[in-house]
Amino acid sequence: MIRNAAVDAAGNPFPTLYWLTCPEAVKAVARLESVGWIKRLEEQAEVDPEVRTGLRRAHEEYARERGRLHRGAEAWGGVGGATRGVKCLHAHYAYHLAGGLDPIGEWVAKQLGDDSLHYEKPGRRLAGIDLGTNSIRLLVSRVAEADGSLRELARDMVITRIGEGVDRTGKISPEALRRTLPVLERYGRRARALGAERVHLVATSAVRDASNRDELAGAVLRATGEPMEIASGEEEAALSFLGATLGLDGKPPYLVLDIGGGSTEFVLGTKEPSASVSAQIGSVRLTERYVHTDPPSYDELDKLELTVTSVLHQVEDRIPVHDANTMIPVGGTATTIQAIAQGLPEYDPEVLHRSVLPRSEAERVFRLLADMTTAERRAIPVMAPGREDVIPAGAAILVGVMQRWGFTEALVSETDILDGIVARMAVADPGSGR
């Protein structure tokens, strides 16, 4: 199953977000359609209030998700572009696999069975969720039986900013919780639909700092079946290093820089971390503290720079950062800056992963972003919705590190703490699975 953009290459509406791609699963669903199940299910929806309500909700949620991916696209219809009724069983089943609450897709899954054709490859399936200050992300991977290597099955990211206001109040706001919980629930459904035997969530800076975590913890347990893990700064750093260096054949020692919304992790090591620091600077935290005009004023940018410099001075007193040969920035700030530097027409993780970002380009993009309004940044094709207001602060951290510690380039990584979470799960519980 794949997710498309909400528009095609020409900018025209593209009605189907989720496509079923497994050839055998496509054939199996087609057989259901060939014996008239679309018509029968539509007739059932007309007389069964539960199915009717569930189908309407599926169309509405699908439209909202399209609108999240492309502003205004929520008006282009629901599942497969339909506004009511049963579009096609392939579209509904694909939406079910994506974690959508779709009664038609769920019915198709039951007809195919838990051991249906899209699970034919051996190996356990594990799912990790990274709940950060700015975003919540999902990774579902298959663990190969032969060598324990990980094969990505699904990856998703939604910016819900659960850390909004936590720096000031010490609490997760009701609004931030309302933004986050529906995404968490969908991730849990998606992981189970893809056959994950375990779903484990790790929360980081904002949740670590919040005093009111009970409602969130309960929701995590319901959605994943496992207690929420709140990683310490050191644990977060170790997971980031593990994810960033998976399969890397580079020039160690590595300095992994994980710029988050609430904190930034600095991790030095070769095969494993040898030293790390988690610092209370992140794109959301610094924006809330210092950026109050749009675009940021020169005075606000100066305050950002002074704060970053002060923190970096403390970091270099604690770990030998100058021993590093390769700097590896991870997270949405670094990958977005690299995508802008490369002039990509759309965000492409395969192009970005382990690509080289020269310091001169990082500085250029920082100056560009700092001079833009939030609306102008939002219009950049590679800008994830919800990142546009905080990315200047994140860029200030990245550029500050490169300048102060003399890195002329950085090796940008798409793999990070999320990959580290799943890799740790695979090693900690190496059962044979299916």
Q: How would you characterize this protein structure?
A:
The protein is an alpha/beta fold and 434 residues long. The chain has 3 domains: 2-117, no CATH class; 122-233, Nucleotidyltransferase, domain 5 (2-Layer Sandwich); 247-414, 2-Layer Sandwich (Nucleotidyltransferase, domain 5), CATH 3.30.420.150. It is 47% helix and 16% strand. It has 18 helices and 13 strands. The protein has a 5-stranded mixed sheet, sandwiched between helices. It has a 4-stranded mixed sheet with strand order 10-9-8-11, with helices on both faces. The longest helix has 21 residues, at 49-69. The protein is globular. It starts with a strand and ends in a 6-residue tail after the last helix.
Structural topology:
Elements: E1 2-3, E2 18-19, H1 23-34, H2 37-47, H3 49-69, H4 89-97, H5 103-112, E3 124-131, E4 135-143, E5 150-159, H6 166-169, H7 174-193, E6 198-203, H8 205-209, H9 214-224, E7 229-230, H10 233-244, E8 254-259, E9 264-269, E10 273-279, H11 283-290, H12 298-318, E11 326-330, H13 332-341, H14 349-352, E12 355-358, H15 359-371, H16 374-378, H17 391-404, E13 409-412, H18 417-428
Parallel strand pairs: 3-6, 6-7, 8-11
Antiparallel strand pairs: 1-2, 3-4, 4-5, 8-9, 9-10, 12-13
Helix pairs in contact: 2-3, 4-5, 7-9, 10-18, 11-17, 12-17, 13-15, 15-17
